[in-house]
Input
Amino acid sequence: MDSLWVALGSAFWLGILTSISPCPLATSIAAISFIGRKVRNSGKVLLSGIAYAVGRMLAYLLLAFIVIAGILSIPGISIFLQEYMNKILGLVLIIVGLVLLEIIPFRLYGIGPGEKSERLAGKGGLWGAAAIGFLFALSLCPVSAALFFGSLIPLSIKHSSMFLLPSIYGLATGLPVLVFAFVITFSVGSIGKLFNKLTLIEKWVRRITGAIFIAVGIYYSLIYIFGIII
Output
């Protein structure tokens, strides 16, 4: 039971870290600004932010389900992961930690939505906001890809969780979006200041998380690969 709570907390933290990374954060601000710029009713702007966050959650949930279900459906891979998951997880955490610390360069060209899809989603009200959230979530940047595929997916596989952990992760990625929707609703001029503060915070949070990932990865490797009991 304790390990499940740790997994839930880890999924939530990974989602928060993903959401405040520069690329997802910038696209979220741009999306909400675009969706809400023609809306006079401030309540609808906030609802658009909620719909956008739900769209992101559904995208991550669907993507995680496809990846995890595909992996676990192959008997050979499933048995292999059950036996060697802890050993693999240690190495994966070390690599992801090095990526977060920018020691290992990592480039990824996502499948980001084009201008036409953004405009189409922007005309659809709340459904459009959810659609653009879904599309932007699939536009994976290096940091978000490392966190999603390198951390959340192995964590979900380890706990055989195709829905719960990805849902928690997706929900967490939407929380800062709601904050910006609230700011846009009541004080558009504060967006720049809030963005700069979150960008600065993200750098230190990412570095601390990267260091923790490396430490945990080394711990897992010492125990499950080298058999050293600490």
Observations:
- The CA atoms of residues 107 and 120 lie 29 Å apart.
- The radius of gyration is 19 Å.
